[in-house]
Amino acid sequence: MAEPAYTVASDSENTGEEKSSSSPSLPEIAVGIDIGTSQCSIAVWNGSQVHILRNTRNQKLIKSFVTFKDEVPAGGVSNQLAHEQEMLTGAAVFNMKRLIGRVDTDPVVHASKNLPFLVQTLDIGVRPFIAALVNNAWRSTTPEEVLAIFLVELRLMAETQLKRAVRNVVLTVPVSFSRFQLTRIERACAMAGLHVLRLMPEPTAVALLYAQQQQMTSHDSMGSGSERLAVIFNMGAGYCDVAVTATAGGVSQIKALAGSAVGGEDILQNTMKHIAPPSKEASGLLRVATQDAIHRLSKQESVQIEVDLGDGDVVSKVLDRLEFEEVNKKVFEECERLVVQCLRDAKVDVGDIDDVIMVGGKEEIYKEVNPLEAAVRGAALEGAVTSGIHDPFGSLDLLTIQATALAVGVRANGNKFIPVIPRNTMVPARRDLFFTTVHDDQKEALIVNHLLGYFKIVGIPPSPKGVPEINVCMDIDASNALRVFAAVLMPGSKSPVVPVIEVRMPTVDDGHGWCAQALNAKFGSALDLVTLQRKV
Amino acid sequence: MSGILVNCAGNSLRFSPGTSLPQPKSTRSHNGTARFPTGANSFRASAQTLNAEPAVTESVRRRVSSLYELLKVNETASLPEIKTAYRSLAKVYHPDASESDGRDFMEIHKAYATLADPTTRAIYDSTLGARQRRVHAGAMGRAGRVYATTRRWETDQCW
């Protein structure tokens, strides 16, 4: 664990006893948090409805950033920027959701090198080095630390307003987050004294809200009414997510998920590259001017961009919609691809879709619900449901049946990925597969859970190749924790011949990028597995 | 009564069900190793079933004789009836809605997945008679899970 010493000023004073003093008779209602790439929100079930908390500036959407300009880092919850541009001086670290859990070979990390704070990459598959400018010196930090500082502020704000300790949270996460990224999020939460009850893919939180609204309007608590199929499309600054859900009677069953790390940030960067010389891409002024231009473009056919970058560099450009769409063609194509893939995975025809729900954009989806608030509202509902809260009016008679966003599997058949639990499998899930040895008298086998961890199963009795049966079982529980089990069976034996191994994944820490390569180089096929072909 | 559709509203379904599905927290202990009570052959058999999914585990089979009984629907139930039954049971057995660890819900989901697809339902129906005889003959024995469930410590969450 190569974690740096951790210093959040307010962390230590909130880890101990006071939490257990909360009333034992009432279950603690978990709060819902939507951590966005650019802004966050926090909401809680207040006994009759979802209540979105506001910060001291009366904002429901709180800018996600942490500034390091003083001794004590301050996040966007309590800290007020004197000016928008203060965010761009290098003292503020933001976009942590784009950086967390990614290695320095990741294109998303590379795209972040244009940001005003320092993002350094060595391209070897380790965590990128990030630092904030403090008194003209770069102070190193990590995405987890930045997120933790922000979450501490969010928690303190909630505790003040709710007048109780806040420990349990339901967080929304992008569909495309790997298990490794999810553990980084959990870790940041733990650093902030928060316990993650559920990590919900963002569109599934929206799906739960949709289920509630549907139930409220149809008064159908039995689910006997007709099932409605909806596509949920969620695009934020950092990620684009799609879900197909079948809903009836307050139960939202996720049929398929698709997601990718494309978002408004890509659109912003593409546009910046388009209008300014490459040397000026890191300019904060340019960033602000471009952002403003994109916003104006949603109302106008074309916009004039004028920005003085200093040193005699002046950008003066007219940008029209056609040009803007051309510059961002790849982003829009990727969004389209995700929708098509999601519909195909859900085995649903476009004609069968009853509703299309757009979130993260500017259009309103429901009469009273701001699309930017849909995810956090859904998370708060999930928080109440999983905390075992009942509502006499049936408003919490809800459920989301989740599906796995990504396949999990093992390396076998000569460095191939063999899925054990495929994508879009209902969660909780438990599946197993049988493998066998590739060499005669092979005593050990390496179980590599693709990019997440590895362990050896040893003590396989001497036997010709193909005889031992190695059962690999994967289990994802309701809170999305993954466990891998492995057992060796011999023909005729009544029980596993060696103790079963159970491993909670992921086991790898930072640097998992080169771990797979190293394993392959060291062991090659010596400890390999092949899928067992069974006689039918 | 296997032939009657579940017929109560979500809220009243919330209390601990009087059926035989166990509440896991009281019944499970963790001792680090797993049991293989049925031996390799039946272990393999249980994993090698309809649509390549692990079969309904014996712990449920022990008590219900068919997937229809598990979903509490009639063998002639229509697809909407099956879906409705599935959703009603989900509100009781899904881990978000109960203390359960999800094992029971996984069984319910498997039953639903089999019966909601006309092809797998037809295959299942054709084997139904044989399955019931086998269960009644006690061939499966008291076969629990292959792998014990680990107790979740809070430190598990992160590092």
UniProtKB/TrEMBL annotation, chain A:
SUPFAM superfamilies: Actin-like ATPase domain, Heat shock protein 70kD (HSP70), peptide-binding domain. The keyword Ribosomal protein does not apply. Residues 1-27 are annotated as: Disordered. Keywords: ATP-binding, Nucleotide-binding. Signal peptide: none annotated. One of its GO terms (molecular function) is ATP binding. It holds the Pfam family HSP70. InterPro entries: ATPase_NBD, HSP70_peptide-bd_sf, Hsp_70_fam. Gene3D superfamilies: 3.30.30.30, 3.30.420.40, Actin, Chain A, domain 4 (3.90.640.10), Substrate Binding Domain Of DNAk, Chain A, domain 1 (2.60.34.10). The keyword ATP-binding applies. Belongs to the heat shock protein 70 family. This is Heat shock 70 kDa protein 8. It comes from Brassica carinata (Ethiopian mustard). The lineage of its organism: Eukaryota, Viridiplantae, Streptophyta, Embryophyta, Tracheophyta.
UniProtKB/TrEMBL annotation, chain B:
InterPro entries: DnaJ_domain (IPR001623), DnaJ_domain_CS (IPR018253), J_dom_sf (IPR036869). SUPFAM superfamilies: Chaperone J-domain (SSF46565). It comes from the Eukaryota. Residues 66-128 form the J domain. Residues 15-37 are annotated as: Disordered. Residues 15-32 have a biased composition (Polar residues). Coiled coil: none annotated. PANTHER family: CHAPERONE PROTEIN DNAJ 11, CHLOROPLASTIC (PTHR45432:SF2), CHAPERONE PROTEIN DNAJ 11, CHLOROPLASTIC-LIKE (PTHR45432). This is J domain-containing protein. It comes from Brassica carinata.
